[in-house]
Amino acid sequence: MKFKNKAIWFSLPLLLLLANAQPVPPGVIVYSHEDSGSRDPSLQFWNIWSLDPQNPGQQVQITAFTNPPIFTATPVWTKDFTQLAFNSNFNDGLASLEASSIYSMNLDGTNVHQITGFGVLDPLPPPTGTVVGRVQAPPTLAGEGQVSGCVITVQGAPQNVPCLDGATFTIPDVPAGSAWVRVQAQVSYPLTIGEPGLSLGFAPINVIPDDVTDAGTILVYPRIPKSIEPAWSRDGTQVIVTNEVSVKTVRRNPNTGRLEWIPGFTHQLNVWSADGQFVQAIPNLAGFEFIGSDWSPAADQICFAANGSSAGQSYVVVANPDGSNPLGIYQVPIDFMALHLVTFCRWSPDGQRIAFIQSNVTLSLNWSSDLYLVNADGSGLRRLTANPLGTFLLVPTWSPDGLAIAFQFSVGADPLRFDSSNLWVIGADGSCCVQLTTDGRSAAPTWGPAL
Asked: Cα separation of 20 and 426, whole Å?
């Protein structure tokens, strides 16, 4: 990968509400809102709402999820502003191959469609057959695992069944159109400290009506995939997403010699068609993982964050939609007092500039994040905010005229655990700032034109 321009560190005022704030451009901002009011994540349910940025008290609820725990996040307009995509878990408990998937819908909440995860929102029709199989924990350094607490489901069938003795299963009334069988299980390895916890596995099936289909032996692994952070292609036929996988691996503790399970995450970018077909994975460069992507509205290019494991190995990258010809246009500074990571990018409406988020974590594990702008060729770097520790600027979105940027401003321990979150607007010229929401439960804006 080629790189241009070393990082420049500006000293700017903290993000404040100023008396000389510029007028907010018109449009419709769609965002995610926590509706329960509870601080307990297990009791929360998030919905998609919209507001008028020039009259932010005028708010409209778009989705109507009420059964916790439900989240909806990172809504994003198509480039022609006719549809929205967002990620959610509302259909993913046992009905998808992911714990979070990407969905599309109209602005009024109609025509909801699942894009990633191969789930369906309604039961598939008959005829039906029966699917049988067996569940097995794969061998590891700790030997053979033991399976318990299985739940088996199949695509488009309303029922699920538990494992039988010997970790076998039989699930009747499976629609002939079903394409997969999914296993969720608890697995233990007697020789390890702790357990890997929830493990998943699946197998493709071809159901024979009024007959038995053998899915074979399904291996289950402690790997939980999610699709998050959607962005539409220029023509609206594809979506690029971050594929995040929560994993646990077994290793021998170098101090005690005992085998133990180590949690972690992996990331890459995937492209799906808008009708729910997997298109391709964008391969990570060696030693890097890609997240937080966007598709240019003006050229056939994408931007994304590329993060390595060492200080200074974090970049804003511009590339072709298949990941080829990557060009690093910004590199974080090497700082012996803090680690800096690019996490998210968004193209301007004319495709000439990129807004991106840089997260900062000190040696004492205190976090903050800030908003930057850079031209698509790597020139013109500008830092718009300098937030104190414990405050986070996240998920920027450009106004349709390119004059302003709305964002999520959160306060909390780190970007994933915040105590309050509201929507703000800052001028793309640095003029600052207008607060749009005050209830502390609003996040992830996306800005479209006035209807």
From this structure: 12
Give me 6's structure tokens: 């070393």
State whether residue 350 is helix, strand or coil: coil
Cβ-contact 42, 68 below 8 angstroms = yes
CA dihedral 361, 286, 315, 325 (to 10 degrees): -170
Q: Could you give the residue ranges of the DSSP H alpha helices within 114-201?
A: none
pLDDT (tens digit per residue) in 194-248: 889 899 999 999 999 999 999 999 999 999 999 999 999 999 999 999 999 999 9
3-class DSSP state of 322: coil
| Separation of alpha carbons 272 and 323, rounded Å | 14
Intervals of CATH 2.120.10.30 along the chain = 2-115+224-448
Residue 256 phi, psi dihedral angles, 5° rounding: -100, -20
> Amino acid identity, residue 26?
P
| pTM for the predicted model, two decimal places | 0.92
Distance CA 445, CA 450 (A): 15
187 token code pair: 């697995």
Give CATH for domain 2-115+224-448.
2.120.10.30
CATH 2.60.40 residue window(s) in the chain: 128-219
Confidence band of 22 (pLDDT split at 50, 70, 90): low
Query: For the chain, give me the number of helices (H) and strands (E)?
Result: 0, 33
Q: Are 319 and 304 in contact (CB under 8 A)?
A: yes
Asked if 355 and 371 touch (Cβ cutoff 8 Å), the reply is yes
Q: Is residue 323 a contact partner of residue 282, using CB atoms and an 8 Å limit?
A: yes
> How do residues 147-182 score in pLDDT, each as one tens digit?
988 999 999 988 899 998 889 999 999 999 999 999
**Contact status, residue 412 vs residue 438, Cβ threshold 8 Å:** no
Which residue shows structure tokens 């307009």? 77
- pLDDT tens for residues 99-140? 999 999 999 999 999 999 999 999 999 999 999 999 999 888
Class of domain 128-219: mainly beta
Alpha-carbon distance 135 to 434, whole Å?
A: 55
Question: Sign of dihedral through CA atoms 321, 322, 328, 334?
Answer: positive
Distance separating alpha carbons of residues 371 and 231, to the nearest angstrom? 19
Residue 359 bridge partners (DSSP)? 341, 369
